[in-house]
Amino acid sequence: MGGTISINWDHLSQPGFDLRVEALLCRLYSDPDDDVRVYDGRGGDGGRDVVVRQGQRLRIFQLKYFRDGFGAERRTQRRQIANSFREAMAHQPDEWILVIPTNPTPGEERFAHELGADHPNLKIRILGRAELDNWFARHADLVDYFNRDQLREAAKIFQQEKAILAGGLADLTTRNRELARVADTLDPHWAVRTTVDGDEIVHRIQAKHPHAHVVSPITLTVSDDAFGPEHTDLRPVLRRVIGFGTAERLILPPEITRNLTYAGPPWLPAPSGRLEIEAVPAELSTDHEVTARLTALASDGQSTASFQGTVERAGRGHLGNSLTLKFEDTATIQMLIGNDHQSHMDGNFRFTRAMPAMVLQTIALYRSLQDSASIAFELDGQRIGTFNRDAPLAVDDEERRLLRITEMLADDLDVVQRHCRAYFPIPDKISVTDRIDVRIARLLIEGHCVVMRETGSYTMTLNGMIDDTLRYLLNRETSVMRITSDVCMEIFGMRLELGPTTYFHTQIEIAGRLDLLAELEAGRGAGRTMKIRPADGEPFRAFMPGQRAGRDDEPLETTAWGLPGLDGPRKRLVQ
Predict the structure, then answer these.
(1) SS3 at position 131
(2) Of 154, 333, 338, 561, which is the most exposed, with the fewest CB atoms less than 10 Å away?
């Protein structure tokens, strides 16, 4: 966005020129990663009025308010520029920019570039009036702020606020827009956003650029005496939000705000009366997704596990920086990195309503944060720092037990889902029967022979035909039986197709076997049902032949379920 502007550079003083340029440079270098520092020349600026550091690149801006330029005849002005340049070179900049309120002549440009004759890698340029005008045209609020004629327009708008809105909603919209524009001229670094709800008026102070808190700080100091027993939970939130810029909601009630000590721009008065203040930290955004990696280290410095996530949010305060790292949708870790090198890490973890494989990774991350001697972290592949601890975190036995139960469930369900190709998240609530069935399914898939959960029975409908095998079964009180069929288990309301499964028992009995035998021999057995049940009350065993390839000669050794508190039937050897 461009346009014409009305700043008259020829009628400014040196301080007025410096203020305008400094405010403009804060806008031009508004990336959160840019480090912009403004120096006060009254105490000697060392050849630096404004310094911008972008990564390893250093730019030094030298502001010289020479309204008549610095041609060859103006030796004093040239001597001042040369002295400033010489002092700036002590800081080894990559670029040196001379800022002036006029458009440079060819001779002035030649003089400036000749200063760098002994610095072949240094880039030198002049930022003059035409370029300043062009940049200011892109930041109209700065022009309005420095153009005091706007005060008359502001007064006119204020008087209109008391007039009847003859134009209806269109008038209201226009006047609100004009008032917002005038409010934007209050400060070159801070914006005011006002909302009205009945008698409640809310003013939200927002930074116009990421360096506002450096060049125009607003400070609120709360006395310890302001906090009573009822504010126990508020104090740590205040420290995190104000000190590190975390994204928590912070509301200071009237009994706290009346004890505030305030310092800031003159247009922003100190809070008075019964005020409630809400602090909303500005986010340090980035134009791309930042990858985060946490690596757990043992006491000897060796890596034990590594986890990749993303940076969900970054914040900054007077005590240090904060980072919120996200690992899929199951783990969020907040890191507070203090300016005094003291750091803190905390996290929120979710072990349900997520896919089993993700839950397993989350549990591994949780354990690593608890048990590791230190945690190293990287952002976009760059090592940032290491969290060290004297000893592993203390975790009670009950927490470890519950974590192990969850891990076993996720592990079982992951195996079952991959085999059945049916995927769904772990539910919040799990019945005992479903939990046992998941373990049984997993053991079957891995080729084990297992005892089924219930004693069970099988009912068959006869077609009236009888052969020697059926006749043999009906003539015996107990028999050995083996049945193979495709099995579908219903777990958590989901149908899981396991595939061909063999059920067998060494002692089965057939209810009413002699009556059934007589009916079949007489040709009247068609449509009759035959119920097969264990004679000794023991449940059927089962295995999946396709999962035991090459193991046909091995005995079917029954595998216990192995669930804590639900170990299943005793282990026995079945020949």
Answers:
(1) helix
(2) 338
